[in-house]
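Deliverable D5.2: sample structural annotation.
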Amino acid sequence: MILLLLGLALFLGVHSIRIFADGWRTQQLAQRGEGAWKGIYSLLAIAGLALIVYGYGQARMAPVPLWYPPVWTRHVAALLTLPAFILILAAYVPGTHIRAKLGHPMLLGTKLWAFAHLLANGTLADLVLFGSFLAWAIVLFAKSRRRDRANGTVYVAAGASRDVMAVIAGAGLWALFATMLHTILIGVAPFG
């Protein structure tokens, strides 16, 4: 569990710097340059992700049950991840109406993904992992929206075709993950 906690602190901490330490981030960018900053940021994020994956895998080997979710919650979780995938993809397709309306669809997708997994899983490791991501996404979304309002940031939509692209790509990736990759990578069949 220690490695999972360390990984979460590192990964989520690195992904929170702009919100909680923007002045320090700006100073580091000025001192080191954008390339060096992105390199350090990426290495820390990858290290955090590796610790999360390894730590969660270790914690799953000796589960500490907190509750026993009914079987139907697995199906609800699998279905809730469909819009989560679409929202996350919409964050990376420039000019979507989804981003124009929501501002930070990746964080909303992360919230939905984490909530869905909390519904379907009841161990301490699940609560720590998905609860951390849910709490992080809630706080970061609120702070990001507040920053956007303060800076007058407006996200402009470029056309409906971009939303269609995000929906099709998100749904396709969700289908691939739900039918194959989740089982291969995580060892759990969402619809099994």
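Annotation notes: Residues 1-62 form one domain. The mean pLDDT is 94.
The annotation will be released with the project's public dataset once the embargo ends.
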